[in-house]
Amino acid sequence: MSVDDVVAETYLVAWRRFDQVPEDPSKALFWLYRVALYATKNSCRGDRRRQVLRDRLRSTTPTHGSPNLSAGPLEDETDQLASAFASLSEDDRTVLLLAAWEGLTGPALATVLECSVGAATTRLSRARSRFKLAVDGPDDHELEVGEP
Q1: Residue 58's pLDDT band (boundaries 50, 70, 90)?
Q2: pLDDT tens digits for 84-114?
Q3: What's the start-to-end Cα distance of the chain, in Å?
Q4: 75 has pLDDT over 50
Q5: Contact in structure between 95 and 127 (CB atoms under 8 Å)
Q6: Helices (H), 21-116
Q7: d(CA 84, CA 136)
Q8: Does residue 146 come out as left (phi exceeding 0), alpha (psi in the -120 to 50 range) or beta?
Q9: CATH assignment of 81-138, among 3.20.20.140, 3.40.50.300, 1.10.340.30, 1.10.10.10
Q10: Is the pTM here over 0.85, yes or no?
Q11: In the chain, where does the domain assigned CATH 1.10.10.10 lie?
């Protein structure tokens, strides 16, 4: 789903549920963020279902090999970051995107995620740690924990 699709879906829901949109502009903004979050999650679920169907289709049809073109270092790093991000849970990706793209922290993040400020801060911190681990891999000393 493109950004334009998310915005369109968000405002469509806002139009249909106009009586539920808070009158306070800051609360209305957070309400819209939540609607956009749900629209994105719904789209992601649909994307996953379509991907499963594509994979099933590919497994039943022969493929013709294409030459393996080597990517430059920038593409490799971008692919590594994209793979690391994709390996995270949907909740981790959501909290990271809200913090990075929308600049939400503290109370604003808590409002959108419908949790306490402490819980939102903890979720963001843990998501950042898991993303760093997915990018860098485990440290050697982490693997030795519990060994004599």
Answers
A1: low
A2: 888 999 889 889 988 888 888 889 898 888 8
A3: 50
A4: yes
A5: yes
A6: 25-60, 73-87, 90-100, 106-113
A7: 9
A8: left
A9: 1.10.10.10
A10: no
A11: 81-138
